[in-house]
Design brief:
It contains two helices and twelve strands, in the order E-E-E-E-H-H-E-E-E-E-E-E-E-E. A hairpin with a 6-residue loop joins strand 5 and strand 6. The chain is globular.
């Protein structure tokens, strides 16, 4: 499949792009936790998110995107997935539930929970112009 400016081409079939799905952490990848805390912004102040909202409105295109948001206490970030509707409004917000923590004796130690606040609830699938859409982030699929 080739994609060209909002249109996908398949053998003998052409259809308009109906939504844009962007991955986890599309706004930035920090080199460490303290850098992440220094640049994280609430969605309503993030130039990245505001730009996506404007594009969603302009093109009447829903967008699902993974972003970072500050935690309530400001000591960690939230790994968040938002659904921006075709009017540019954030309608749904999901926070990653199952953080990736691994500790291999004598080897790799990686603890997402050191810098990311876990979510507390599953967002039920919701109705869109595409049909029902569900939300989950990365390691949530394994849990």
């Amino acid at each position: 499949m080739a994609i060209a400016v909002g249109v996908a081409f398949l053998p003998t079939v052409m259809f308009a792009l109906m939504a844009l799905f962007l991955p986890e952490a599309s706004d930035y990848i920090a080199s460490n936790a303290s850098e992440g805390l220094s640049i994280v912004q609430p969605a309503n102040k993030s130039t990245f998110v505001l730009g996506l909202q404007s594009s969603a409105r302009e093109h009447e295109l829903p967008i699902q995107v993974g972003i970072h948001e500050p935690s309530n206490d400001g000591k960690k970030v939230k790994n968040t997935l938002v659904w921006i509707d075709e009017k540019g409004e954030i309608k749904y917000r999901y926070q990653k539930l199952h953080l990736f923590d691994i500790e291999i004796p004598g080897g790799l130690v990686m603890k997402e929970s050191d810098s990311v606040e876990p979510g507390r609830e599953i967002v039920p699938p919701f109705r869109t112009t595409l049909g029902n859409v569900g939300m989950q982030i990365c390691f949530d699929v394994w849990s």
